[in-house]
Structure formats: structure tokens, C-alpha cells
Design a protein that fits this description.
- The protein is built from seven helices and four strands; from the N terminus they run ββββααααααα.
- The protein is globular and about 45 Å long.
- The chain starts with a strand and ends in a 20-residue tail after the last helix.
Length: 170
């Protein structure tokens, strides 16, 4: 989630993004027929497989979580909103988020597709690793590169109003 992303500097002064607080998962019960895992984390950023309690969680869950952060950055809104954890969980597991272009028509199609690809319910349809996903984002890494790749003629983009994280409840 955005609160766990910290911008620092490398020795040469260039920016570096650091991820802190990887969350905690703990096995709470085991039997011959059932393994129960309790996951601790922020539900909005949890993938379908995490919410389902699957044991074989892999890097594609990280791609999903990063997709939520990217969706927030691009649209200024979360991909899912609900009043309770159960309602949020049901939406994440069964509904598709609104296309980013519905919320912000100026979002280029290529970027909207990349965001939606990260939020795929079926993890087999997501990019396999964060490294691979970041490679897909690299053409947009600089403002000039982003504008050239994503906007007709390098057009100006209107600013996104970020949600107030202190009052957001999930």
C-alpha cells in the first residue's frame, strides 16, 4: 500500500523506491485435510488467492497489490470500495474494477490495459513477477517518456487528486 512505499536516494543522488512492511502470514491450524492460514494485511491490496486462503501464494500476489497502488495513482480512487471487510472481499473476488478510463478519460488505453492486467482475478493471467511488470512500466518511467508513449503529441495531463489515506477505511 502507498504508506509502505518510501522514496530515498542512492549514493549518486538518484531516487530509489523502497518497500517496507511485507506483512505477516501465519499458519493457525493444520490437519490431514485442511490447512488454515490467517493473513494479516490491508484487504484492499490482497489478491483473490490471498483472500481465498490458498497456500501457494507467489509473486503474482505482489503484482496484484502493486496494481492496486497503480490504479490509485492513475485514477485517484481505489479499484474497490465497500463498507465492511466482507463486502470488500466479495467485490475483490467477484467484480471487475471500473476501467481507469471511465474515471479518467485522459488515461491512455495502453496504461489502462496494463493496470487492469495487474488486477486480473486469475493469477495465471497476471505478469509472473514484479520485475516483469516493472519492465512493462519502464517506457513510462520519465515524464518525457510517459508523455511520448501515453499521450497524443505529449499533451498535458490533469493532476490526480489522491484519496486521504488517513480517513480511508477498508
Amino acid at each position: 500500500k502507498p504508506e509502505n512505499l518510501f522514496l530515498t536516494q542512492r549514493d549518486d543522488g538518484s531516487p530509489r523506491l523502497k518497500l517496507l512492511d511485507f506483512g505477516i502470514a501465519k499458519v493457525v491450524a493444520q490437519s490431514a485435510n485442511l490447512n488454515t492460514t490467517r493473513s494479516f494485511g490491508t484487504p484492499l491490496y490482497m489478491s483473490v488467492e490471498q483472500l481465498s486462503g490458498l497456500k501457494d501464494i507467489d509473486a503474482r500476489a505482489d503484482v496484484y497489490a502493486f496494481g492496486v497502488v497503480l490504479y490509485l495513482a492513475v485514477t485517484g480512487a481505489p479499484p474497490f470500495e465497500a463498507e465492511t471487510f466482507a463486502m470488500l472481499m466479495a467485490k475483490i473476488m467477484t467484480e471487475l474494477p471500473r476501467d481507469p478510463q471511465e474515471l479518467r478519460p485522459e488515461v491512455p488505453t495502453a496504461l489502462a490495459r496494463l493496470v487492469m492486467k495487474a488486477l486480473e482475478k486469475d493469477r495465471n493471467k497476471r505478469v509472473a513477477t514484479l520485475d516483469d511488470f516493472i519492465r512493462e512500466l519502464e517506457p513510462f518511467a520519465t515524464e518525457q517518456g510517459f508523455r511520448a508513449k501515453m499521450t497524443p503529441g505529449g499533451a498535458e495531463l490533469s493532476p490526480v487528486r489522491a484519496p486521504d489515506w488517513r480517513t480511508a477505511e477498508t
